[in-house]
């Protein structure tokens, strides 16, 4: 299936996109390379949009940019009044690094805020989260989590969020460092870790044996990345 693109009917629309994107990046202190890395698109794609040299950008790229900056497509594409700038946003992160389960399980500190340390980033719609911490990150669902979580699901984990009853939490087994995703059930004085994988057993939370390392504050589904050998 061929991906849809947007054909600009006038140079004015193209100019509006270029100007609006430049303004968004300036207000949010994001460079072209940082935006490209966060969205997982080539640097040249962002550079051509900024310079106004793309007359038929992909709709998926525009949607990702709009979601990243928490604006609508209309706002991104149409002329704006500079007196009242709709692009002003808060300073919360707008993308989080995607890290592996192995990286979560080891005890090395993660420099999450450094763009150069991570190849893949997940754009986060700011409307979804009011106070996401600077130490938040994303991990991809495991195949065994299907069907509750479809293949290609991502969990946004905030290690600074206090868990409450019913939360999905990421926890570590202190003995071997193994990491698992569970549903937290609090029934004082006990806490249980309920499985999200079929036919798995529940666990009684014991502070000396288990450590809650983060709370799932958002789950997002993205199409599965295709890895195949071309004919």
UniProtKB/TrEMBL annotation:
Record-annotated membrane-spanning stretches? none
One Pfam family in the UniProt entry: Peptidase_S24
Q: Lineage of this protein's species?
A: Bacteria, Pseudomonadati, Pseudomonadota, Gammaproteobacteria, Legionellales
Q: Which organism is it from?
A: Legionella birminghamensis
Q: Where do the HTH cro/C1-type domain residues begin and end?
A: 21-76
In terms of PROSITE patterns, this protein maps to: HTH_CROC1 (PS50943)
Q: Name one GO molecular function term.
A: DNA binding
Its protein name is Peptidase, S24 family
Q: Which UniProt keywords apply?
A: DNA-binding, Transcription, Transcription regulation
**Is tRNA-binding among the key words of this record?**
no
């Amino acid at each position: 299936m061929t991906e849809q693109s947007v054909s600009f009917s006038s140079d004015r629309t193209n100019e509006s996109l270029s100007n609006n994107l430049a303004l968004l990046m300036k207000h949010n202190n994001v460079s072209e390379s940082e935006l490209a890395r966060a969205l997982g698109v080539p640097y040249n794609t962002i550079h051509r949009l900024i310079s106004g040299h793309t007359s038929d950008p992909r709709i998926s790229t525009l949607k990702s940019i709009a979601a990243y900056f928490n604006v609508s497509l209309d706002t991104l594409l149409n002329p704006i009044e500079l007196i009242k700038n709709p692009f002003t946003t808060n300073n919360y992160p707008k993308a989080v690094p995607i890290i592996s389960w192995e990286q979560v399980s080891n005890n090395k500190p993660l420099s999450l805020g450094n763009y150069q340390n991570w190849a893949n980033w997940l754009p986060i719609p700011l409307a979804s989260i009011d106070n996401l911490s600077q130490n938040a990150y994303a991990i991809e669902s495991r195949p065994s989590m299907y069907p509750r979580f479809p293949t290609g699901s991502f969990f946004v984990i905030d290690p600074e969020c206090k868990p409450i009853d019913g939360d999905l939490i990421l926890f570590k087994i202190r003995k071997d460092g193994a990491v698992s995703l569970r549903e937290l059930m609090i029934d004082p004085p006990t806490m249980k870790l309920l499985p999200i994988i079929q036919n798995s057993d529940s666990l009684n939370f014991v502070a000396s044996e288990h450590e809650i390392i983060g709370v799932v504050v958002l789950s997002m589904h993205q199409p599965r990345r295709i890895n195949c050998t071309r004919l």
